[in-house]
Amino acid sequence: MAADKHFFAPAGDKRLFIIVGAFGSGKTEFALNLALSLAGQGRPAALADLDLVNPYFRSREKSGMLEICGVKMIAPEGALRNADLPSIPPALPRLIYDKKTAGVVDVGGDRTGARVLAAYARDILKQDPSVWYVFNRSRYDNARNDAALTSLKQIEVSCGLRVNGIVHNTHLMGDTTAATVLWGFEAAKRLSELAGMPLVCHCARWDLIDELRTLSPLFPMTLYMNRPWEDG
Amino acid sequence: MQKELWKGNEAIAEAAIRAGCRAYFGYPITPQNEIPEYMSKHMPKAGGVFVQAESEIAAINMVYGASATGVRAMTSSSSPGISLKQEGISYLVGANLPAVIVNMMRGGPGLGTIQPGQADYFQATRSPGHGDGHMIVLAPSGIQEAADLIRDAFELADKYLTPVMLLADGMIGQMMEPIIWKETSPLPEVDKPWAADGRDGDGKTHFVSSLRLESDVNERFVLSLKDRYAKIARDEVRYKSIGCENADLVIAAFGTTARIAQSAARKLDEEGLKVGLFRPITLWPFPYDALAEIAARDSVKAVLTVEMNLGQMHEDVRLAICGSKPTPFYGRTGGMVPEPRHIADKVRDILREMEL
Fold first, then answer.
1. Which residues are registered as beta bridge partners of B303?
2. What is the pLDDT of residue B268?
3. Average pLDDT estimate for A170-191
């Protein structure tokens, strides 16, 4: 196992994490793992599912597991949790101003999914937020750096927030190997240079971490968004 | 070739463009919205046409119009929207027009839920709309297969001058999987001398219609369909069978449910129970003979059908087996997805009861 300094941990003085990115970049898995790591630091943590564009595979499906692990879930309640309605739970604006809670906001994909944030941009900006763009080179709209940069800029315009970090999350779901992550690394580095913002971390499943010692900081992830034939 | 991560709906749209589809007409409905969304962005770049129609009915009739001019045309929707398209599909059959229709099924009836379902099996396989027609129905169980089958769908549509439906459930549309783009060039152009494309200039009018006022003429047309369907049933049946050799029990399932059933079969294998999987890929024509042959094997005690409905493909399984073996059923419906452990429980129960 790599030394501790190689591992990513969210800074203690940061409390609002806005997770944006292209469709399918892995925002939800990252947001779930980030919220759990915040709770693991002993901080009161919450995860807001603000995905208004996806009907399936949303973080709200994991609310039971999150609550057990000490992460408060903020998502539409009752039957509305299964709707594809653009409804925003009233607890979201409360989270933005709740200085005692470390909040992760899992935003829908692309500029379409990010648009909902614009209504809260002014409030969010007052909280010195971490706005992170999740990058996955295996996705067609992240495959080329110019397209990834365009996607990032479009999201910024759409939500009214400046992105200030790149989360490198190149993966191929169950087919991901260390080589997949390393293949994505070069492109993630170029994107961070082009966009003029730091690489926050490199994400990988726990079982791949030993093969990825050259990358730092690493964020080992457990995958929660299983499909019905996978053991959850 | 580098693997890429694609969402089902997007892969289907991209595969259609790659295959040579140049006209897409649709109307939004969950869980297939990424198809029109993707088409709106990428079809114009490919030199094709994207129209968000005013309704599902308008969209299917635009497909009719485009196809009548010889263009490869497609529409997509989800269960309630596909119901609205039934009349248009019947007209496509009646006019001998090729077209591809994607149904990303959700839980019904009515508006139902936006969660996955497979309850449109009867609607797709018995007869689309009214009349004595059929369409080829292809059921992928993963995203690579969905992308590959879309290409095949356009090829089959042109070959047999028939609508072809890709019948999947919302899970296939919404999930992501790594895929490889195997074919890089579009399908070859097919000569369509019947197309109303204004090209001939020889004074001959090309008229595409499903109206035949003389009953004997119409009967001859329907009988010609019958011949074509017999040829399709002979030449185009597709299925996969996994682990059916010496199986104690065979599970018949299609699409997403087949993946779940396979997961259950693996669990049971660890317990020493041999469970095979029979997965029809063409739901029409249904692989009756192949299933009958597998079911007739001595080791097979029963064929369990698992579906996300109340037992629709189950009827075809029973037709294939003709009472020679027990044909139990397990299903979830209304948007609920079966779990591998519940299928495994059902298999254990069946085999235990048969031993008694």
1. B250
2. 97
3. 96
CATH code, residues A4-221 = 3.40.50.300
A164 phi and psi, to 5 degrees?
Answer: -125, 15
Ramachandran category for residue B25: left, alpha or beta (phi over 0 → left; psi -120 to 50 → alpha): beta
- Chain B: residues touching A (Cβ < 8 Å): 3-7, 10, 14, 30-31, 34, 113-116, 170-171, 174-178, 256, 259-260, 262-263, 337-340
Q: Look at A54 and B174 and tell me if their CB atoms are within 8 Å.
A: yes
Q: Does A55 touch chain B (CB under 8 A)?
A: yes
pLDDT range class, residue A83, cuts 50, 70, 90 = confident
CB contacts < 8 A (A, B) = 69
Determine whether the interchain pair B5/A139 forms a contact, defined as Cβ–Cβ distance below 8 Å.
yes
The pLDDT score that the predictor gives to residue A3 is 45
* Domain range list for chain B: 4-194+205-235, 239-355
CB contact under 8 A, B4 and A138: yes
In chain A, the percentage of residues whose pLDDT exceeds 90 is 76
Q: Shortest Cα distance from B178 to chain A (angstroms)?
A: 6
Shortest CA distance from A85: residue in chain B: B30
Q: Domain B4-194+205-235: give its CATH code.
A: 3.40.50.970
List the domain boundaries for chain A.
Answer: 4-221
Evaluate if residue B93 carries a pLDDT over 80.
yes
**Which residue type sits at B54?**
E
Which two three-digit tokens encode residue A27? 């925002």
Check if the beta carbon of residue A169 is closer than 8 Å to that of residue A26. yes
Contact A138 B174 (CB under 8 A): no
- The residues near A164 (Cβ < 8 Å, ≥ 6 apart) are A130, A131, A132, A197
Query: A143 — contact with chain B (CB < 8 Å)?
Result: yes
With CB atoms and an 8 Å threshold, state whether A84 touches B260: no
Tell if the CB–CB gap between B3 and A175 is shorter than 8 Å: yes
CA gap B310, B330 in Å, rounded = 8
String of b and e for A221-231 (b: at least 16 CB within 10 Å)? bebbbebbbee
CATH number of B239-355: 3.40.50.920
Q: What is the reported pLDDT for A80? A: 81
Please state, in angstroms and rounded to a whole number, the distance separating the CA atoms of residues B237 and B284: 8
User: pLDDT, tens digit, for every residue of A106-147?
Assistant: 998 889 889 999 999 999 999 999 999 999 999 988 888 899
- The answer to whether B175 contacts A140, with C-beta atoms less than 8 Å apart, is no
Distance from CA of B261 to the nearest CA of A (A): 8
Domains B4-194+205-235 and B239-355 share a fold: yes
DSSP A21: E
- Contact assignment for B174 to A140 by CB distance below 8 Å: no
CA atoms within 13 A on the CB side of A51: 28
